[in-house]
Amino acid sequence: MEKGQKEQRIAQLVQELLELIGDNPQRTGLQDTPKRVARMYAEIYRGYNPAQKPNITTFPNGEDGIVYDSMVVDTGDFYSCCEHHMMPFFGKYYFAYLPHPKGKILGISKIGRVVDYCAAKLQVQERLTHEVVEMLGDALGGEYPPLGIALVMRGEHLCKTMRGARKKGEMVSSCLTGLFQTDSALRAEFMNLINQMK
Ligand SMILES: [Zn+2]
Prior knowledge:
By secondary structure, the chain is α+β, with helices and mostly antiparallel strands. The chain has seven helices and seven strands; from the N terminus they run H-H-E-E-E-E-H-E-H-E-H-E-H-H. The chain has two domains: 3-44, GTP Cyclohydrolase I, Chain A, domain 1; 57-197, 2-Layer Sandwich (GTP Cyclohydrolase I, domain 2). A five-stranded mixed beta sheet has the order 5-2-3-6-7. A two-stranded antiparallel ribbon has the order 1-4. The longest helix has 18 residues, at 3-20. The chain is elongated and about 65 Å long.
């Protein structure tokens, strides 16, 4: 289905949904809502479109005269939607990797872009965590892959916070590879660091 057609069809369905939940789609405040939601979906669900996949630039380690051989950490926000309720879950991510001295270095802005892309579809937090590590791991891969990758995500799930027990629906997920899995001192260093960033 062509893009315009798809947006029109989504708008029709949202209009029907508004009626079914008991509202009046003709009232002033709701008149443009179906179209607005359809346009928003194209953005927040762009992760289904492989053409939107970010280009992950990497540099040879040592290119700028410094060989990076200690942990590189990046943190930021993420926003996604849970696949069980189509409700937002969002929070902070903490990413780290240990570059191989002969391997590659990530352009730091790329980490956030990959998180955003993987989050822009219906997800569960555990799978989102794994997908980000996989995509960044692939980009850093090759003859000298990184010595380890770690990602921790802390998210609040509105489907839990807003309903049921109305407890704050917080969740932590993690994915660790290489030395982050096998070297407990390195793992502790990373965990200490991100606990200070809370
Ligand atoms: Zn949910």
